[in-house]
TrEMBL record, chain A:
Ranges in a coiled coil: 84-111
Span of domain Methyltransferase small: 44-139
Signal peptide residues on this chain, from the entry's feature table: none
Protein name: Methyltransferase-like protein 5
Gene3D superfamilies tied to this protein: Vaccinia Virus protein VP39
Keyword field contains Coiled coil: yes
Domain of life: Eukaryota
Keywords: Coiled coil
InterPro entries on file: DNA_methylase_N6_adenine_CS, rRNA_MeTrfase/Polyamine_Synth, SAM-dependent_MTases_sf, Small_mtfrase_dom
Gene: LOC104717312
Biological classification of the source: Eukaryota, Viridiplantae, Streptophyta, Embryophyta, Tracheophyta
Family named by the database record: Belongs to the methyltransferase superfamily. PrmA family.
TrEMBL record, chain B:
Gene3D superfamilies in the record: 2.20.25.10
UniProt similarity note: Belongs to the TRM112 family.
Protein name: Multifunctional methyltransferase subunit TRM112-like protein At1g22270
Domain of life: Eukaryota
Family matches, as Pfam families: Trm112p
Lineage, broadest ranks: Eukaryota, Viridiplantae, Streptophyta, Embryophyta, Tracheophyta
Gene: LOC104776348
Length: 175, 124
């Protein structure tokens, strides 16, 4: 699939009708979502035929992108039932299979090494302080190969350091 | 929810040390075909909790998987086994039902294919 085509499909997805501010809900735009997943696959081979988890999936933009890039299996996790309903509709609309789980990802311990890649656009921590690091910590525990995550530019060095020092990352890069 | 997802979910209620696997109470199960990718299935085999998969599949009405995890040689020699594993892992969907904690009996409801794993305040 070409990047432009992926971006076009993602642009048609339903988004939050009433975003919940306290959960920092906002859509992941098609421009960044398509590029993020395209890079993850084309530069690193982390999406196609892999098991991909989307933490804080919201309306499912990154999950759908992973599925469109032929992930073997995609699982989206979110705390908000309304978002998950929208995500389910989006998956149906684009005829992709995605499993969704309603949970608090910071309290969910996933067993085993099934998940290869975690993709996410987590809360930045503007509402609940440290939320971004909690999501990153959870993702690092679960992903056996790679984590792709969006963060505030101002936190770049902090995140790289935390990933290497505290979360057992073999490497950490800003892409 | 498919069994590939079930294979990673456990009960995280405070104090519960091994809430895995969750027992499946199947209300409504549907089957949806997806493309068979033998390499992916071979690759997954070593990572699966076999007993959890077999019991989960049985709860969803599919009893074709062997009770004990077979020798890895079967991955090369037996395509019908790979297809059964593919079917169990990726084509069975629990639409309505519950996932039950093996230690406490607490039920996590599954509606429209989505398990609700949110804990109550006193369980955290």
């Amino acid at each position: 699939m070409k990047l432009k085509q992926l971006e076009g499909l993602l642009g048609d997805l339903e988004q939050f009708s009433n975003p919940k501010v306290e959960l920092e809900q906002y859509p992941t735009g098609p421009h960044i979502a398509s590029r993020m997943l395209f890079t993850a696959e084309n530069s690193y081979g982390d999406i196609t035929d892999k098991v991909v988890a989307d933490f804080g999936c919201g309306c499912g933009t990154l999950s759908v992108a992973a599925a469109l890039l032929d992930a073997a299996s995609v699982i989206g996790f979110d705390i908000d039932p309304q978002s998950l309903e929208t995500a389910t509709l989006n998956a149906e609309e684009l005829e992709v299979e995605i499993d969704f789980v309603q949970c608090d990802i910071t309290k969910l311990e996933l067993k085993g090494q099934i998940v290869d890649t975690v993709v996410m656009n987590p809360p930045f921590g503007t509402r609940k302080k440290g939320a971004d690091m909690e999501f990153l910590s959870a993702a690092m525990k679960v992903a056996s190969q790679a984590v792709y995550s969006l963060h505030k530019t101002s936190t770049r060095e902090h995140i790289k350091r935390a990933a290497l020092r505290d979360f057992n990352a073999k490497s950490a890069q800003v892409l | 929810m498919r069994l590939i997802t079930h294979n990673m979910l456990s009960c995280n209620i405070k104090g519960v040390t091994n809430g895995f696997p969750l027992r499946i109470e199947a209300g409504n199960v549907i089957e949806k075909e997806v493309d068979f990718n033998p390499d992916f299935i071979r690759h997954m085999f070593a990572k699966l909790e076999w007993k959890a998969l077999v019991e989960g599949a049985r709860s969803m009405g599919y009893a074709e998987l062997p009770e004990d995890s077979p020798d890895a040689a079967v991955l090369e020699s037996d395509e019908s086994f790979l297809k059964k594993l593919h079917h169990a892992l990726l084509e069975l969907h629990l639409e309505e039902g519950a996932l039950v904690c093996p230690k406490t009996g607490r039920k996590f409801p599954v509606n429209k294919g989505i398990p609700n794993m949110l804990l109550h305040e006193d369980e955290v």
